[in-house]
Design a protein that fits this description.
132 residues, mainly alpha, 0% strand
Length: 132
């Protein structure tokens, strides 16, 4: 069963030591679908490359502005930790810049590891010679 955007959001709340049941996170829940869409749009090319290399089917289309919390997370599950870190960093960017920066650094490291793990795809090379 596919992971939902809500599960990603709950992971982000856990990173912030927040509970979805406290009334203090209503603003977070309102912003999370937009942040999830921003993350997915940013990571879509890497997801496409990973899917092609692994022989996975193409990702389902998603709205690049807003992905409802109840929707399935459109990227491969290996992007979930990075998505949690990104959303957490963006949720607290105005309230706790230092925490946001630490989370964003971890997100960047996580995405770097994902990019490094994309398998290469053998392709033929075309020799092209230019004569003057």
């Amino acid at each position: 069963m596919a992971m939902t955007v809500n599960e990603i959001y709950l992971g982000a709340l856990s990173l912030l030591a927040e509970s979805a049941f406290s009334g203090d996170t209503d603003d977070y829940a309102e912003r999370a679908p937009y942040l999830a869409a921003a993350f997915c749009t940013e990571a879509q090319d890497t997801d496409d490359a990973m899917r092609a290399a692994l022989g996975e089917p193409e990702a389902a289309d998603f709205n690049a502005v807003h992905i409802p919390l109840d929707d399935s997370f459109p990227l491969l599950d290996r992007f979930a930790p990075a998505a949690c870190l990104y959303i957490a960093a963006m949720l607290v960017i105005d309230e706790d810049e230092e925490l946001s920066d630490r989370l964003y650094d971890r997100y960047s490291d996580c995405m770097s590891r994902i990019c490094e793990s994309v398998p290469s795809i053998p392709q033929t090379v075309t020799d092209v010679y230019y004569f003057k």
